[in-house]
Amino acid sequence: MKIATWNVNSLRKRSEAVAAFIESERPDVLCLQETKVSDPDFPAGLFRECAMQVVWHGQKSYNGVAIATSSDLADVERSLPEMNEEGQARLIAATVDGVRIVCAYVPNGGDPVKYKYKLAWLDHFAVFLARQRQRFGRVVAAGDYNVAPADADVYDIEHWGRNSVAVRPPERQAWQRLLAAGYEDAQAQVGAPPQFTWWDYRNSAFASNRGLRIDHLLLAGVACAGLQVARDVRGAPEPSDHAPVVCQLAAAGD
Questions:
Q1: How far apart are CA 86 and CA 140, in angstroms?
Q2: Are 183 and 221 in contact (CB under 8 A)?
Q3: Rounded Cα–Cα distance for residues 76 and 74 (Å)
Q4: Neighbour tally for 7: CB within 10 Å
Q5: Separation of alpha carbons 207 and 235, rounded Å
Q6: Quick one: which of 22, 24, 45 has its CA closest to 32?
Q7: Within 10 Å of residue 56's Cβ, how many Cβ atoms?
Q8: pLDDT tens track of the chain, all 254 residues?
Q9: Is residue 94 within 8 Å of 71, Cβ to Cβ?
Q10: How far apart are CA 140 and CA 100, in angstroms?
């Protein structure tokens, strides 16, 4: 199974890019974040034209998540239980070919109030992931986590700032609690050097590769046989500030 995750930063703006990505990569599952479209206006036809089923959890202008797949979807869940999401559409989960797919858009936490919310959200997410693993056994939790787990996941930790968003100790400690829920980082499984997944639009950050690795796939009961960041998508005209991350799961028994 090939699984891709991509913060598209507006699905309607990136609809042609999404269709082109599906055509070129042929993912079995595509997890999208920051779709920025309300449920009634979600462009489901885009995915039907690509021979994919899709489920979504949307919100006008902000947030929004979706799972598209070439297979059947079952047991769809929306929102994070026991967390007051205040209308924020940040999580959707479904089962595809015996693998539980969780698509998450973790809050950024750019100001003190939002940062407190982010840490609370991550704590509830750790509980949710533990329950998903216990219930389904085989789980892939993909998405924009807005956490760079280690200094190597930042182009220059001192320049970025150790007290900046995505790298502060409480966020990295919350990341460790996600792993403690029974998950492994797909990047760690393949053992390759980390690849950045997000670059600021400003100051030629992409051209100079000043990026962060904040888009992740956490795995339980499955293994990653290959991982790549589709940098060419980030380098296309009018791109999202994120690049898709593509994970090829190992066959059962490998």
A1: 26
A2: no
A3: 6
A4: 26
A5: 8
A6: 22
A7: 24
A8: 999 999 999 999 999 999 999 999 999 999 999 999 999 999 999 999 999 999 999 999 999 999 999 999 999 999 988 776 567 999 999 999 999 999 999 999 999 999 999 999 999 999 999 999 999 999 999 999 999 999 999 999 999 999 999 999 999 999 999 999 999 999 999 988 999 999 999 999 999 999 999 999 999 999 999 999 999 999 999 999 999 999 999 987 65
A9: no
A10: 6
The residue count for the chain: 254
Residue 226 to residue 89: CA distance in whole angstroms: 30
Cβ atoms of 93 and 76 closer than 8 Å: yes
Q: Kindly write down the DSSP assignment for every residue of the chain, as one continuous string.
A: -EEEEEE-S-TTTTHHHHHHHHHHH--SEEEEE-----GGG--HHHHHTTT-EEEEE--SSS--EEEEESS--EEEEES-TTS--TT---EEEEEETTEEEEEEE-----SHHHHHHHHHHHHHHHHHHHHHHHHHS-EEEEEE-----SGGGBS-HHHH-TTSTTTSHHHHHHHHHHHHTT-EEHHHHHTPPP---EE-SSTTTTTTT-EE--EEEEEES--EEEEEE-HHHHTSSS--SB--EEEEEPPTT-
* Contacts of 214 by beta carbon, 8 Å cutoff, 6+ apart: 144, 145, 146, 147, 148, 153, 166, 197, 198
